[in-house]
Amino acid sequence: MNNKDKNETPEKSEIEKGKSHIVVEIIEYVPNSVVIKTIIRKSTGNISIMSFDSGEGLTEKTSPFDTFAQIIEGKAEIVIDKICSILQTGMGIIIPAHASNYIKPNGRFKMILTIIKSGYEE
To answer: Global pTM?
Structure first.
């Protein structure tokens, strides 16, 4: 396996284990973009960090799993089932499974999304 192949494995996209990190510095802003970086990816859930440039958001969607969104820098407007919540640095919200949700642009911000996939076996 050459270096290029090693860098493309899912394990290399995660944050280095056993090392402390300043979470807000893991990801940078990119003009006119939403940037997503995986912190941990497992079959039972994922943790990702995201940065949103001014004017950028996420379109309406639903997920079959509960999702915890935590703002780590700036301010965001998160709409869940047509109910708007404005979150600032340090605040978080649980987006329930199957709830319609989207993120409205409200300046630059960074957040962590934690998706829990277990507990939904039928």
So the answer is: 0.81
